[in-house]
Write a structure and sequence with these properties.
alpha+beta, four-stranded antiparallel β-sheet, 8 strands, about 20% helix
Length: about 160
């Protein structure tokens, strides 16, 4: 029985030695190397999102008065720009954008931001734009000074003491 195990083990060792004699470089397929080079070169092409402005001030508005502004942007990079998401810091602000639509290098687009005008006093909201840029996201801001509907100033009670 020991001889059988010894013969099987020696046979497996011999097969393993013969199979490993092939050189790894002989197994490289030239077409695959070329495809990988093209892929890697394409990965170096990164879009760059440039905005005409990153903040918009609506000024003084009356509470509940809807506002909107457009943030224009250009793809200043050398790869297609794709916006995958845009979210605001609050449900009162809604961004509209070309979701998952490739924007070629040099081309421009627009991101519309709608604000329902709610709040009081100084209000600032942020919009986070997620895209395939090197940074991965861009921040935009809107702000307004919101007054009550009747136009009266909002009084803040003072503490005694």
């Amino acid at each position: 029985m020991k001889k059988v195990i010894y013969v099987v083990a020696m046979g497996a060792l011999l097969i393993g030695t013969v199979a490993c004699k092939d050189k790894a470089s002989a197994k490289i397929v030239g077409e695959n190397v070329e495809t990988a080079s093209v892929r890697d070169e394409g990965a170096k092409k990164v879009p760059v999102m440039q905005f005409d402005k990153t903040e918009h001030d609506f000024g003084t508005i009356e509470n509940g008065t809807p506002q909107q502004t457009i943030f224009k942007f250009t793809n200043a990079g050398d790869g297609p720009l794709i916006i995958t998401d845009a979210k605001s810091s609050c449900g009162c602000t809604i961004p509209e954008y070309p979701k998952n639509t490739p924007i070629a290098p040099g081309d421009s687009g627009e991101l519309l931001v709608k604000f329902n005008g709610s709040g009081q006093n100084q209000v600032t909201k942020t919009i986070t734009v997620t895209a395939n840029t090197a940074k991965g996201s861009e921040l935009l801001r809107i702000k307004a000074f919101v007054t009550p509907k009747d136009g009266a100033a909002i009084s803040v009670p003072m503490k005694k003491g």
